[in-house]
Amino acid sequence: MDRETEERFISVETKLAYLEDFLNQLQEVSVEHTELLERLRKENQLLAQKIGDMAELLEGDIPNRKPPHY
Questions:
Q1: What is the pTM of this model?
Q2: What mean pLDDT is reported for the chain?
Q3: Region 42-65: what's the mean pLDDT?
């Protein structure tokens, strides 16, 4: 194998190593974001449920309700 071919192989192997590292980093970030998104979804559901519960409790106490003919 001549010198130029060997240098090209080394260059390709180096680029491949960097790409593999980059792919692993992207995968880690993707997993972190997926976990965060799931936690935020659960928190959003809990907050929506609490707001709904509070609205039901206060429904009779709200003085500025629109009359039925609106």
A1: 0.62
A2: 90
A3: 82
Provide the pLDDT for residue 56: 79
Cα separation, 49 vs 62, whole angstroms: 19
Cα 19 from Cα 8, distance rounded (Å): 16
The one-letter code for the residue type at 69 is H
Q: How far from each other are the two terminal CA atoms of the chain, in whole angstroms? A: 87
Instruction: For residue 63, give Cα distances in angstroms to 22, 43, 68.
Output: 59, 30, 14
Please give the structure tokens belonging to residue 59: 């429904």
Task: Give the pLDDT band (50/70/90) at residue 35.
Answer: very high
Instruction: Look up tokens 């980059």; give the residue.
Output: 22
Q: How many CA atoms lie within 13 A of 37 on its CB side?
A: 6
